[in-house]
Hints:
Layout lengths: L4 E6 L5 H14 L4 E6 L11 H24 L6 E4 L7 H7 L4 E3 H10 L5 E5 L5 H10 L6 E5 L14 H14 L5 E4 L8 H8 L3 E3 H15 L27
Helix pairs in contact: 1-8, 4-8
Amino acid sequence: MTVPRDVLVVNPNTTASMTDRIGAAARAAAAPTTRVLAVNPSMGPASIEGYYDEALAVPGLLDTIIRHERAARDQGGALAGIVIACFDDVGLDAARCVADAPVVGICEAAMQTAGLLGGSMGVVTTLNRSVPALERLAQRYGVADRCTVRAAEVPVLALEDPASGALDRMRAVIARLLDEDGAECIVLGCAGMADLARSLRQEFGVPVVDGVSAAVTLVEGLATLGLRTSKRGGYAAPLPKAYTGVLAGFAP
Length: 252
């Protein structure tokens, strides 16, 4: 009998309805033998739109990961992998330091996947304030020379409101990325867009990559190969030391 694999998908913001949508997209991409647990922290911003929100989402993200890994161990098991479901790859490096399971961010998964499907990619994100962060991630992931990032000027939580016009703005940006920027494939630059990939793929006739699905599939592959994050160097466990104030509970 095949033993199910447990994959933790963490939405770093605190909006449960968005977590539900992310979880549905993750389960649709996962293998039948993968159990997806989609969760969000109990503390932090309602949405992540810029560097400030990103920084203050990290404590809740790390607390969520630590608690769920501990719960899995207490039950005699272990997580097969962890997905950080925010396109800013919030807290990714820190999560790799504290987690036993491999951790994959949806931006890195989406950009690397798109790089296998076309010579250039266009990223459609939410707000203009997010563009610089995603351009830096494109540099980090080695795709900056073939990646264009454009914003639809849509607040993250507007993606849940059919009356907001968010989808039409996204369509207009995708058309520009294809027609003006020469993108050969499209990357959806927000976890809240995860459920739109299939319909947009059919509409525009090009690969449209959703980072949630890409990350879940990549985590499953790492689990199949028996690979985990190296604990030498930068991703070694945090050193014991005192933390003070409201962060006292995070002391390693």
